[in-house]
Amino acid sequence: MKFFVDTADVEEIRELAATGLVDGVTTNPSLIAKSGRDFTEVVKEICTIVDGPVSAEVTATETDAMVEEGRKLAQIAKNVTIKVPLTWDGLKACRTLTQGGAMVNVTLCFSANQALLAAKAGATFISPFIGRLDDIGEDGMDVVRDIRTIYDNYDALSTQILVASIRGGDHVRQAALAGADVATVPPAVLRGLSEHPLTDKGLAAFLADWEKTGQSIL
Length: 218
Ligand code: G3P
Description:
Blueprint: E1 2-6, H1 10-17, E2 24-26, H2 29-35, H3 39-49, E3 54-57, H4 63-74, E4 80-85, H5 88-99, E5 103-109, H6 112-120, E6 125-128, H7 130-135, H8 140-153, E7 160-163, H9 169-177, E8 182-185, H10 187-192, H11 197-213
Parallel strand pairs: 1-2, 1-8, 2-3, 3-4, 4-5, 5-6, 6-7, 7-8
Helix pairs in contact: 1-3, 4-5, 6-8
Residues 6, 26, 28, 129, 131-132, 164-165, 184 line the site of SN-glycerol-3-phosphate (G3P).
């Protein structure tokens, strides 16, 4: 499973990318607003740090305007993935943009049927929002499992499942078990995946015992 980071914080991306664990980046208008920076500049900078897909979202709501915005975003860098919402207009924009050779991430997906339509519209990625489904009392991961089954039923559907709205390590574990292609994770969640209290406890004990030997490796 690939890891994307779900942020527009360039410094965070730079630090995390240095680990080699980051395969791409997703942004959305809320994350751009949180960064307080110019949209185009931020996306351009992220694309110099990460070689993999970098999602930049259109804000138009009608097909023609979405396509126009998408084409402009795609000119920022070759690894820009145009993000469009899962609306009827968004699906039509997805078809046009992917037929023109662009990568498209269809976002705000909350059902397997929506994901089926996105795949048929040629989406490169589909983004089911797991945490937001959990928030309303549904099991977001059920949608991911259904999408995986549906896509695997048909060779013609090659859209990658990009699990979004991830809130913690358990979502990451379940996404990997479900066979998701990508998990996009907030930086804090990615860092948290490396942590376990028994790792800390074990390391403290090893270091204390090593100290007693009076030795040093170097
Ligand atoms: O980038 C889209 C998605 O990951 C947003 O997550 O936490 O705002 O539901 P969240």
